[in-house]
Amino acid sequence: MVVPENLNYTSWLTVKQMMNKHFIVIHPNDSLRTVIQYYQDSRLDTLPVVDNNDKLIGVFPKKRLYKALLDGSSLDDPCTPYIVNEPISVSCDLCYDEVSMVVRSSQSLVDYVVVVDHQGAPVGMIGTAEYLRGSQKLIMTSNVLLESIFNANYEGIIVIDNNGKILRTNPVAEKMFGLISSEIKGLHLEYVLPDLKLFSNRSRGVKQIIQDLPVIVSQMPIMADNIQIGTKIAFVDISDMEQMARELEIVKDLQTNLDGVLNASSDGVFVSDISGYVKYINESGCRLISNTSEAMTGMPIKKLLPSGLPAEVSKTGITEVEVCSINGRNCIVSHIPINKVIYDETQTVGVVSTVYLDDNRLTEEIARKWLSLRQQVQYYRDELEKRGNSFDNLVSKNPAFIKMKKDAHRIARSSSTVLLTGESGVGKDMFAHAIHSASPRANQPFVKVNCAAIPESLLESELFGYAPGSFTGASRKGKTGYFTQAHEGTVFLDEIGDMPLSIQVKILQVLQDKEFMRVGGIRTQKVDVRIIAATNKDLREAISKGAFREDLFYRLNVIQFNLPPLRERSEDIWPLTQVFIQKYNEILGSNVVGITQAAKDALLIHSWPGNIRELENTIERAANYVLEGEIGIEHLSAQIFQFGQKAYEPSSYRAVLSDVDKEMLLVALKKAKGNKSAAARLLKMSRSAFYEKLGKYNLS
């Protein structure tokens, strides 16, 4: 069957598709004997005659051969006298329905017509047999098209003959009235649908009730050669139309409300599609550009807003904010993607660009916060660029921690697995980053995975990815896992003590064989990664409880660093405090110059259960309150003064100083197990000053 390239049926069949390509050409000087041989080989009744340039000059029909023999010509005589010159021919690209082809074929004096190309050279022969075969193919193709249109029609359709008997029904009509086509074919329509009222002439849009179903009926005659051969009856379910009308009204109401909301805004709103063409502009946007909505709709958004960000947002799906000048006015512009779920995938289908003008307080506040965010982003970017060897950023004066840094710097050059242990907040994350940055993999990805933050049902697919369509809701393109993303780099498995046993088996396989299999995959994948794991749990205890695999523990525990808590490296509290003050001065734009002695003493005696993270949060909070000058004891959070289980509530500045002073003495005595000389050394005080304070607070 001919497969049409488009729905223009007149172009479905050409002469080139119908013609017989198996023919032999004759030259004027060929003998009659040669011509007889050619006829025998080609089995055609007519053969084309060409000149020395292979262009058609005539034809030699088989009846001319008979005439030559009757005239007494010898078989060795040339065929020239019997050639039909200036024959009828057709072009190879003529279509089936072109009158010129049919006319030329019928006017020809021979049974077969020569088909020529654009240079006039024969490329085939066409006759009645070829034409009929082509017609049959065209009829079959047309029938397939008509069937598809008939069955895909939204309306219910019943076709009857002139006697009212049913010839055809489409699936919509069968479903509408509960009919079965094979059972009702040939029955009279009045018997099948007695409620249906038919008219003698054509009718459109007549409302009727058929089998308690309200429908709109249209009746059209089927004509052939100006004679009616049947009737087509179309049915539309009114309930469907009413539902569509209601939905249309809802859409209109939403559009009206949306227009009202957007036009009430003092900010300009521009909506563009995925191709970057404007679909909507509110009144403020029209005033800003000094043009009408009708004139600007359909224009490229880049002609209205001097920015390339809308196109970028439509590609990335990530919100962007910028400052730009529009018609001489300084504006802040946000570009927010419009997302739509298509086939279980979220796709960006447009962008909303909102122009915040500089003539209201809200815009000033947005500008101030936006600039602050930019300043923070720039700070973190600069920090990343300055990182280099991150071990330099691990501030410490503690001898044990300094040695640990040196050991870690040395082993960073290898690819051995590292296990970091220690309480929450001691800096395991930074330590892992430092090892990666000092390793030969520094320029490759560092991928952090918090094993406790990802649900168990998703953890395997997040770590190893999944194949396309491997489970309900999976992306049709599949997904790349963290291990693949970190190829030739480092994977940091934080909180590995919370990893489910089912996933631990696959991690063990990666460590042993450097390979894994995606969820729903059929073959393993090789991967080159270094694994750094971290936990604040006792893994040996977890092994004894059956919550952690012993073989995985030994695979992870090749090199272990147990990071000490801040309370065991109290000499680092002040250096870290200085680092954090400088950091938040840059982030917040503050000018904190230091910390009072009382506040410093309070930090020194605190037990820091949250370790370095808690200290950083404390300084960040204080910097927000101070902004300039020194951090005082009144700027510290209440939890710093939680002695035992009872929170301390200072009544005055002097009371705070006295209570902190007294508490420091008690803590020092406790640490020194009552040895006053040792307690004085802990506080770096002379014995006489220490005894004087003991007497002051009646602690002697």
Automatic annotation (TrEMBL):
Membrane-traversing stretches: none
Domain PAS: 142-195, 254-298
Domain CBS: 19-75
SUPFAM superfamilies assigned to the protein according to its UniProt record, in alphabetical order: CBS-domain pair, Homeodomain-like, P-loop containing nucleoside triphosphate hydrolases, PYP-like sensor domain (PAS domain)
Signal sequence segment: none
InterPro entries: AAA+_ATPase, AAA_lid_NorR, CBS_dom, CBS_dom_sf, Homeodomain-like_sf, HTH_Fis, P-loop_NTPase, PAS
Statement: the UniProt record of this protein carries the keyword Lyase: no
Domain Sigma-54 factor interaction as annotated: residue spans: 394-624
CDD domains in UniProt: AAA, CBS_pair_SF, PAS
Pfam families, A to Z: AAA_lid_14, CBS, HTH_8, PAS_8, Sigma54_activat
Protein name stated in the entry: Sigma 54-interacting transcriptional regulator
